[in-house]
Design brief:
By secondary structure, the chain is α+β, with helices and mostly antiparallel strands. It has 5 helices and 8 strands.
Length: about 325
């Protein structure tokens, strides 16, 4: 009977060990699948943005899913939840891009047609508008009597010089109309080119805020094992829809910055998508080390490109002490 109990206990221990080994692998696999879908969904949104379609609901849902595979939420349940949401976004991504492409080409055609129409009307007015304007003027003044306000000068009678005019004649109104149409056409084309090609920057900004979501009030001394939340603000001025990655490390204060990624006690990774000209506030919750000493929190900013997430050369760091 004792042998059976011993065997059952050993089997239970083996089962627990196997579960402990399998769960991280399963979480890593599920989170990797979710990350692949997130990148695909981001690329759909990026194509739509480049075609001047801003789908804020899509980006909001994408960021909500990314929150489940970021930081301490990157568990089996969190990544599974994100996987379902990202799959739904992937199913509507192609139709969103198609709709954006159709809307973009329609916009280009409308602007081009409006500019061409303005130019054609301006040419027509310049060619035939004066004759029509004079006919309308004469028709509206048919019952009027024309009187000379003064005696003509000799050079005017001889055809030299231009007779003095009093008030506006129809020619001036045609000239104003032609000029206005030309300005409208130039304005439409300029606005289109400005929208397509003019871009400020590009650059990104990262700022670390304290527990009160403001600059200052940073923790300088923490008890071992205490959870602390700070806030990282990232601003996108890259002139395109950007998918960012924040890598946060807890390491010793003496570790050089370039060695942080290979010498740390804890690490957290966060993902989010930001429209150009907008900002994102990312809470960063970390656990203070259990061993007293001098430490620092280092945050690196990455952005997605064709080959993966590339480091932007931007970082924040905060030094603190761990004391009992």
């Amino acid at each position: 009977m004792s042998q059976r109990r011993l065997v059952a206990a050993l089997l239970a221990v083996v089962l627990v060990v196997v579960q402990l080994a399998v769960v991280p692998v399963r979480a890593q696999s599920t989170c990797a699948q979710a990350m692949d879908l997130a990148i695909r969904d981001y690329l759909y949104a990026s194509k739509a943005y480049n075609l001047m379609l801003y789908n804020y609901t899509y980006i909001s849902d994408l960021n909500a899913a990314l929150a489940n595979i970021s930081g301490i939420s990157a568990t089996v349940s969190g990544c599974s939840l994100a996987l379902g949401a990202l799959s739904r976004l992937s199913s509507v991504g192609p139709s969103m891009v198609s709709r954006a492409r159709a809307s973009f080409y329609s916009f280009i055609v409308e602007v081009s047609a409006s500019s061409a129409a303005a130019i054609i009307v301006a040419i027509a007015l310049d060619r035939w508008g004066r004759r029509l304007a004079w006919r309308l003027w004469l028709s509206s003044h048919a019952r009027h009597v024309v009187k000379a306000l003064r005696e003509p000068r000799e050079e005017e009678l001889a055809g030299v010089g231009r007779p003095a005019r009093h008030g506006r004649d129809p020619d001036s109104y045609v000239t104003y109309a032609v000029g206005l149409l030309i300005l409208i056409a130039v304005g439409l084309v300029s606005a289109l080119l400005f929208q397509l090609y003019w871009r400020p920057g590009p650059y990104s900004v990262i700022v670390l805020l304290g527990p009160q979501r403001e600059i200052g009030g940073y923790p300088r001394s923490l008890a071992p094992g205490v959870n602390t939340t700070l806030y990282s603000v990232v601003s996108n001025h890259m002139n395109k829809l950007e998918m960012y990655q924040l890598r946060a490390y807890i390491t010793y204060a003496s570790v050089p910055l370039q060695d942080t990624a290979s010498n740390y006690t804890e690490s957290y990774t966060y993902y989010f998508v930001i429209y150009p000209g907008s900002s994102h506030v990312q809470p960063i919750t970390f656990t203070a080390p259990t061993v007293p000493g001098q430490y620092k929190l280092v945050i690196f900013l990455y952005a997605y490109n064709i080959t993966g997430f590339g480091y932007l050369g931007l970082y924040n760091q905060l030094y603190f002490n761990v004391t009992r």
